[in-house]
Amino acid sequence: MDNQPFRTDMISVSDVSKRYGGHTALAPVTLEFAQGQIVALCGGNGAGKSTLIKMIAGMIPPSTGEVTIDGIGWRRHRTAYAKKIGYMPDDFQFPGGVTVREWLGFYAALRHVHPEWIDEMLGKVGLQEHAHKLCTSLSKGMRQRLMLAQAAVAKPAVLLLDEPTNGLDLHWISWFVAMMKEFRQSGQTIVFSTHQLEVATELADELIYIHDGKLLKTFICKQADRQHMQEEIQDLLFAAAMPSA
Ligand SMILES: Nc1ncnc2c1ncn2[C@@H]1O[C@H](COP(=O)(O)OP(=O)(O)OP(=O)(O)O)[C@@H](O)[C@H]1O
What we know:
The chain is of the alpha/beta class. The protein has helices at 49-57, 78-83, 100-110, 115-124, 140-152, 170-185, 197-203, 226-241, and strands at residues 11-20, 23-33, 38-42, 64-69, 72-73, 85-88, 158-162, 189-193, 206-211, 214-220. The chain has a domain at 11-92 and 157-239: 3-Layer(aba) Sandwich (Rossmann fold). Helix content is 36%, strand content 25%. The chain has a 6-stranded mixed β-sheet with strand order 6-7-8-3-9-10, sandwiched between helices. Strands 2-1-4-5 form a 4-stranded antiparallel β-sheet. The relative contact order is 0.17. The model has no long low-confidence stretch (mean pLDDT 91). Residues 20, 23, 25, 43, 45-51, 90 line the site of adenosine-5'-triphosphate.
C-alpha cells in the first residue's frame, strides 16, 4: 500500500443502473464505500448482486450513472481504473493445458508483480503443492482459491469478489474470513457477494440487501446485533421467495 491518507469516499457509485432490453437488472443506486471497508451484497438469486459487482469492476457498462474509484472513472481512464481492482467472477472456465502456476504467473506478469510473490500467494491460498496441476483438474474449492489468488495477487486497492466462498469447505471459509480481515487491516477495500449470511455478518462493515434489482436495505454492521441482523435478512429472503398474493 502507498502512504496516501485513507479516503472516506473511495468507491463512488452514482445513480448506477443496468437494463437488459426491457428488463431492469438493477434500478439506479447511489453508494459510497470508504477505504478499508468490507461491504457484503446479499439477496436471493437474480437480485442484481453480480450485476453491481461487474459494473464496479468495469466488466459491463452501466445503463445510467458512473462508478469512480479514487475519483477515477472507468470510461475515461480504463488502465488506471483497472490497476486499482482485483476481480473474482462467480463462475469461470479455465482454459485447458494451463497449470496453476502458469495461470497465476500470467496474471502476476500482467500486473508487474514480483515472481516471488506468486509462490507466496500460492502458499497463502493452499495451492503450492498443486502448482503444477492443470487448472481444469482442480476441485471447485481449489478453483475458487485460485481465482481469489488471481484477484489478490497484485494487492489491488479494491477487491471485488463474486460469491468467493461458494464451494469452500468450513476450514477454507474460516481462512477466507481471516484473510479478508488481514486485507482490511492493510487498507484494502472489499466488496463481495454471498448467500452465506454468517460470512456476511462476520466480515462486513456494511451489508447491502438487494431484491429484484432494488436496493432494499443497508445494515451498518458495527452497530447492529449479528444474530438479529441474520434473522432479519433471513425473513427478507423468505418473504421474497413467497409467491405474491
Ligand atoms: N447478460 C445478461 N442478459 C440478460 N439478463 C441478464 C444478464 N445478466 C444478468 N441478467 C439478469 O439480471 C438479473 C440480475 O442478475 P445477477 O446475475 O446480477 O443476480 P445475482 O444477484 O448475482 O444472482 P445469483 O445469486 O443467482 O448469482 C437477473 O434477472 C438476470 O437474469
